[in-house]
Design brief:
Helices cover about 30% and strands about 25% of the residues. The protein has 6 helices and 9 strands.
């Protein structure tokens, strides 16, 4: 169902029906060989980060942007709308990349898709990607590598509990509308963070 995203109504996405949870969006069953359909929802961290990019287009304008663990592609689409020179949405789930292609077309913006980050990234973004300890460890390593190579790194996180805050500075905070069926609340306080330069780094 194509509908506007609550915090970024400038962007519409193909999302699960209102009132649906993650289990509902998977047709009632998960498979160990296939990740849940995270791309069917506009998660709080992604909404906040997308809002930040739209409100601060200078963050990405004219730059090569990679959206890591993109899900629906919301943040990638926001970066493209904000004037990024190139945007690549990265996800390990082929179904998510297909969803990004549909969503980018629906918003009439160019977004490339890939299973791994391309070279030459100038800004790396990640929305709501610190939801388990294992995933957080992988994300932190990838973001640190990008930061050490000189990229600016921005993330959106609603306090999932696994973000290594010591590596980041706060940039903005939002009250994000979310589905109660998904989050057991109707709003989540969500922070946009920027990764600090590495010691002696750029």
């Amino acid at each position: 169902m194509l509908r506007p995203v609550p915090l970024t109504p400038e962007i519409s996405l193909h999302l699960a029906e209102p009132g649906a949870g993650l289990f509902d969006a998977s047709a009632g069953q998960f498979h160990s060989d296939r990740p849940p359909p995270f791309f069917s929802f506009a998660w709080a961290g992604g909404q906040a980060l997308a809002r930040f990019l739209l409100d601060h287009p200078e963050s990405v304008r004219g730059r090569r942007v990679t959206d890591l663990a993109t899900g629906s592609g919301l943040v990638a689409i926001a970066a493209a709308r904000a004037g990024a020179a190139e945007v690549t949405a990265v996800d390990t789930d082929p179904a998510a990349l297909a969803a990004v292609t549909r969503n980018a077309a629906a918003n009439a913006v160019p977004v490339a898709v890939a299973a791994t980050p391309p070279p030459g990234v100038e800004v790396m973004v990640a929305g709501d990607a610190f939801y388990t300890a294992r995933v957080a460890e992988q994300m932190t390593a990838a973001l640190l590598a990008a930061r050490r190579s000189g990229a600016r790194v921005l993330v959106g996180d609603p306090g999932r509990g696994y973000l290594p805050e010591r590596l980041f500075d706060r940039r903005a905070e939002y009250q994000v509308p979310v589905p109660a069926a998904l989050e057991e609340t109707e709003r989540l306080p969500t922070t946009v963070w920027e990764m600090r330069p590495p010691p002696g780094g750029r």
